[in-house]
Please model this.
Amino acid sequence: MIIANDYVLYTKSMLKPFLLMFISLTTVHCFSQSGENKDSTLKTSRIQFAAKVIPAVVSNSTTLKVYPNPAKNKITLDVSGFEPGMVIVKIADTKGKIWRVDNRLLTNGTEEIAMFLLLQPGIYFISISEKNKVVKKKLIVL
Model:
């Protein structure tokens, strides 16, 4: 019995260093894969896909002016720098809840858009977006 207990203790004491060495070698092996591995190709394609999905870029040539700000129930959006066509106007609160979404047609890309609001007093964000352009402004509703 004493020999069996000593063998179990010896095995347990050798098992821990062996497992640590095994784990560290597998970890190094996982992070040092060559570019020819199928997994590496999948990771590259996922990164490329993620880069394509990035939302629209804010352009320096597009502008949005909101007046009056602070407002009560009517605002005017002075938009310029967009291409003629459909744009999406969103109004969201500070928590990210979207309160209004409008599709508007810009005939020449530089226009004034009048909007009537039925919003509770607070701070909101207005964003106008088209294909790859987004412009955001803060709006205070009294």
The domain at 63-141 is CATH 2.60.40.1930 (Immunoglobulin-like). Confidence is low (pLDDT under 50) at residues 26-54. The radius of gyration is 30 Å. Helices lie at 2-31, 38-53.
